[in-house]
Amino acid sequence: MKAKVFLSCGQNNSSDEPAVAQKIAQSICALGFDCYMAVAAQSLRGLRENIFAQLESADYLVFIDFKREEIRVNRGEPVCRGSLFSHQELAIASFLEVPSLILQERGIKPLDGMLGAMQANAIPFSDRDLLASAVAGLIAEKLQRGEWRKDARNTLSLEVADPQFSVARQNVGVLRRFYHIAVRNNHHRKAALSCHAYLDAVLNLSTNELTTPKTVEFKWAGTPLPGVRIGPTAVREFDVINFVLSSPIMPEFWPLADSPDYYPRMGGPGKYRLSFSVVSLNFGTITSDFIFEYGQTPESVVFFKAEVPVLDVSL
Q1: CATH 3.40.50.10140 region(s) of the chain?
Q2: Exposed, middle or buried, 142 (CB in 10 Å: 0-12/13-18/19+)?
Q3: pLDDT tens by residue, 27-85
Q4: Strand partners, 279
Q5: Does domain 4-145 have CATH number 3.30.310.50?
Q6: Class for domain 156-305, per CATH?
Q7: pTM of the full predicted structure?
Q8: At CB < 8 A and 24+ separation, what contacts does 69-75 make?
Q9: Under a CB-based contact definition with an 8 Å cutoff, are residues 135 and 24 in contact?
Q10: Alpha-carbon distance 244 to 296, whole Å?
Q11: Mind listing the pLDDT tens digit for each residue in 218-255?
């Protein structure tokens, strides 16, 4: 899993900026990163679904501040302002605490916009033709110093636990099997805080019947708390389905609820597609689908992560 760099870079179509931006993106990818190159969104939906979402999941930001029109400050020598869209992206990245590499074209008003608010020390440049190699060199230095990494992501991921189930004695002589989903924190230094797990939808693949359970937190393995911390590169599991080891089996979900109205249900033996989400205080929401199939016996159970796309619960 490659780390993702969000490239915030002016792309004025009447200049050489798009070509320069492409070269910078290529140089970042050549170092072993994924690179998202931001393009100015034309609607609130575009901002929310593209810019905001990509910044939220970005591991690093490369901010390139190109010159815009000239302005005069206190009747002094003319200077230029920077790119408005890029400064907005820098503001969001600062709020999200995304580590940033900041470069600014010579001739821009010093400490203008977000740079002044952040007291950021921008690296100046003047030759756009050399910019891609300069950015690559600066990132290479960060990699060498251990400040950036190519193999860590600012995301959580869901997978079937290994082993995928455990067996516990519930009462005298009664054994119960518990299936788990593992939540992995892919970041190398940031802990995921206040993580909560939810079942968003249940699709009966035999009847094509889709149900959306009431919103209720699922139980994390080993604790009664609804929210947990997942340390850097660590994994925590939550309880998905359990049943008594008997025949016929009767699988049940295990949410943290004291009312049967909040317990999701399956409609008997068959094959089901289950859509789970994990929400974190400081990571983006991650959603994945899993297949759970069962018949009459414990040996009939099949449980695995489904291929994308995930269920569309808005239908």
Answers
A1: 4-145
A2: middle
A3: 999 999 999 987 654 444 555 567 788 888 889 999 998 888 777 666 667 788 777 78
A4: 196
A5: no
A6: mainly beta
A7: 0.74
A8: 71/109, 73/109
A9: yes
A10: 12
A11: 999 999 999 999 999 999 999 999 999 988 999 999 99
The predicted model gives 189-199 an average pLDDT of 95
- How many other CB atoms are there within 10 angstroms of residue 69's CB atom? 7
Q: Are strands 209-211 and 100-105 parallel, antiparallel or unpaired?
A: unpaired
Q: How far apart are CA 9 and CA 20, in angstroms?
A: 9
CATH 2.60.40.10 occupies which residues in the chain? 156-305
Residue with token string 């952040």: 118
> What one-letter code names the amino acid at 200?
D
Q: Which amino acid is present at 78? A: P
